[in-house]
Structure prediction request, 263 residues.
Amino acid sequence: MKVYLDLVFFLNFFFDCLLLFTVNIVLKRNGKIRRILLGGLVGSCSTIFLFFSMTSFQLFLCKVFLSVAMILVSFSYISFKEIIINLLYLYFVSILLGGFLYYLNLEFSYDVIHNVFVSNQHHSYTFLLLLIAPIILYFYCKQGSYRKKRNANLYCIELVEGKRKWQYTGYLDTGNQLYDPYTKRPVHLLYDPSYKPSRKQRTIYVPYQGLGVSGIIPCVFFDKMIINQEKEIVKVLVGFSKEPFQIDGVSMILHGDEILDES
Prediction:
């Protein structure tokens, strides 16, 4: 079997740099490009392990040592805790990328004939995998950033009216500027088709106007709203939306004035 050392070295260097750049972005380490490239070069030194007869455990220890060296070269030493965090993220991203590439390699390397997987040894998809790898990590970074911002604005909400209680997931939307023009109370929005106001809850109608859209939304007062099982707001005004919100798992759009004042 032929082993092209230059190709192995290049692949190691490429993927190591890619992983280090991903760690740098996700953890916001502000590492310099030249240091990250140098860290990838250190990681590529694992190519020399091909020339030594080593047990699996010895190979594992050598790779851990090189991983720590990559982290130190790329991001310098700040604290032992930070090294551990960087190392864990490096391995996590490696597993994520490796899993995707392994799956794609299986898909491209085997043909299905009569429901049987048959090895296809006549094609090399190395360069295709090189193109796909950055795309995979790019979407990982984008989704991580989106989820972080989204989760920062999510709240566990409990609405209380008399002895009745309802639990919802609320999203703090600073774009919600809806107020009742008479009571001057902020209006939180709720989508729950199964909810039926009690006889004690008097329905009031609040006019709203958006981007080329206007109308009237029915609202009721609740005795209180409990936020994350910690803060309470009494006499909250909640309006009922006819359409579900375009945010996964969210049933309420919260008004910033009351939530931020109470948080």
Summary: Confidence is low (pLDDT under 50) at residues 110-119. The chain has six helices and nine strands. The helical segments are 5-26, 33-43, 56-75, 80-109, 126-152, 256-262. Residues 80-109 form the longest helix (30 residues).
